[in-house]
């Protein structure tokens, strides 16, 4: 896989960014928003732990030196329940003692502030590679269902569910194009090789079965145009 692939992959991932200095946080957050799907930027680790328990986070980017709870303590708490999420720590040169402790916490990388954009980008690409290779790339739906793209498997309440190849093709097509309404003709051409099989009734049957599995409101019908996957 190329760097371009993983840069595109990053656009589907959520990043949690923690930095107590407001000016730095705003500048870095603006950069991250150009790279990823969604950025949660917070000023301290207490708020970050609370958000981490409620939102789906793919990558953590955290400063080390912060009041109340430092970045190392935060990572230790995260690692108690999540051993695999990629974590990148940000440090000043004076944080060397912390880094010796951080080597035990399975970090993707650590970066020295002030941040260099290219180094940040490379660290995020490395994190996205780790997610992809671990098979942790999932689309989450409101009914406690998730679809793992690398495994091509659907789970509900952590239990594998049946999903057909056509349902997979439809779901992945809509996800890759979730910023737009995918025309009905494009969907048919993508799912069926034989145009005679690509009927309106056949498409509606696949849609109906998929909606039952991921939630009926997860796919929006735009009358006369096509379908769009709703934000998950």
UniProtKB/TrEMBL annotation:
Domain called Response regulatory: residue spans: 14-128
Any one annotated GO CC term: protein-DNA complex
Pfam families in the cross-refs: Response_reg, Trans_reg_C
Residues of the DNA-binding region: 129-231
Biological process, per Gene Ontology: regulation of DNA-templated transcription
Occurrences of domain OmpR/PhoB-type (ranges): 129-231
Residue positions, PTM 4-aspartylphosphate: 63
InterPro entries: CheY-like_superfamily, OmpR/PhoB-type_DNA-bd, Sig_transdc_resp-reg_C-effctor, Sig_transdc_resp-reg_receiver, WalR-like, WH-like_DNA-bd_sf
GO molecular function: phosphorelay response regulator activity; transcription cis-regulatory region binding
Phosphoprotein found in the keyword field: yes
Keyword set, alphabetical order: DNA-binding, Phosphoprotein, Transcription, Transcription regulation, Two-component regulatory system
Coiled coil: none
Name used for this protein in its record: Transcriptional regulator
Organism from which the protein derives: Halarcobacter anaerophilus
Phylogenetic placement of the source organism: Bacteria, Pseudomonadati, Campylobacterota, Epsilonproteobacteria, Campylobacterales
């Amino acid at each position: 896989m190329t760097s371009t692939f993983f840069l595109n992959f990053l656009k589907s991932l959520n990043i949690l960014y923690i930095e107590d200095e407001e000016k730095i946080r705003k500048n870095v957050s603006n950069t991250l928003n150009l790279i990823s799907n969604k950025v949660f930027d917070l000023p301290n680790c207490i708020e970050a732990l609370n958000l981490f328990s409620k939102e789906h986070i793919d990558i953590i980017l955290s400063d080390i030196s912060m009041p109340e709870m430092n970045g190392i303590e935060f990572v230790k708490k995260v690692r108690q329940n999540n051993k695999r999420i990629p974590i990148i720590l940000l440090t000043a040169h004076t944080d060397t003692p912390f880094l010796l402790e951080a080597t035990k916490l399975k970090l993707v990388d650590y970066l020295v502030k002030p941040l260099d954009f290219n180094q940040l980008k490379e660290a995020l690409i490395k994190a996205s590679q780790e997610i992809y290779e671990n098979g942790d790339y999932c689309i989450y739906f409101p009914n406690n269902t998730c679809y793992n793209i690398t495994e091509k498997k659907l789970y509900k309440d952590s239990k594998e569910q049946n999903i057909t190849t056509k349902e997979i093709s439809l779901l992945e097509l809509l996800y890759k194009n979730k910023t737009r309404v995918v025309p009905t003709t494009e969907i048919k051409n993508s799912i069926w090789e034989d145009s005679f099989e690509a009927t309106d009734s056949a498409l509606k049957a696949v849609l109906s079965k998929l909606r039952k599995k991921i939630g009926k409101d997860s796919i929006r019908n735009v009358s006369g145009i096509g379908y769009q996957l709703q934000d998950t």
